[in-house]
Design a protein that fits this description.
The chain is α+β, with helices and mostly antiparallel strands and 97 residues long. The chain has 3 helices and 3 strands, in the order H-H-H-E-E-E. The chain has helices at residues 2-25, 29-38, 47-52, and strands at 57-67, 70-80, 86-95. The chain has a 3-stranded antiparallel sheet with strand order 1-2-3, with no helix packed on it. It is flat and about 60 Å long. The two termini are 38 Å apart.
């Protein structure tokens, strides 16, 4: 039943994508190029965003890790640096089971 439902949905989505692609190509290409040529590309730079990205951000995350039959909860401190690097530090490891 699941396979039949998945097959039906995938065929319907392929048909929908094909019909929308056909509708886009059937339009006049001359008007599309005229619109693109008439509107010059403008770029706005926002200075506040660049200043905000210079901050160091520190986040604490925990995850469950299985080692053999044992399960541990590891808590990490992740520091995101302004140059794109990250530093991770294991804060605690507690056995759950």
């Amino acid at each position: 039943m699941k396979k039949l439902l998945a097959l039906t949905l995938s065929l319907a989505s392929i048909g929908f994508v094909a019909s929308s692609a056909e509708a886009k190509t059937s339009g006049s290409s001359n008007s599309a190029t005229a619109i693109n040529a008439a509107a010059p590309a403008t770029v706005q730079w926002r200075r506040n965003d660049r200043r905000n990205n210079r901050r160091v951000r520190t986040v604490t995350q925990s995850r469950l890790v299985r080692v053999g039959r044992r399960t541990f909860r590891e808590t990490y401190q992740i520091t995101y640096l302004p140059n794109g690097r990250t530093q991770t530090r294991l804060i605690s490891r507690v056995r759950v089971r």
